[in-house]
Amino acid sequence: MTRALPVEPGRRVLLVEDDPGDAFLVEELLSEVGPEVELSVSGSLVDVLEHRLFASADCILLDLNTPGTTGGLDGLRRLLTADPGAAVCVLTGLDDEHLGIAAVGIGAQDYLVKGKADGPVLIRAIRYAIERRRAEAGLVRLREEQLAAAESVRLERGLMPTPLLSGSGVAARTFYRSGRTRSVIGGDFFDAVLDPSGTVHAIVGDVCGHGPDEAALGALLRVSWRALVLAGVAERQLLPKLQEVLVSERHDPRLFTTVCTLAITPHGAGGAGRGLVRLAGHPPPVLLGPPPRTEPPTVGLPLGIDANAEWAPREIVLDPGWSLLLYTDGLIEGRGRGGDEPLWEEGLLTLLGENAATPLDTLPGKLVELVEEINGGPLADDVAILLLSDEGPA
Question: 4-aspartylphosphate (modified residue): where (predicted)?
Answer without folding.
Answer: 63
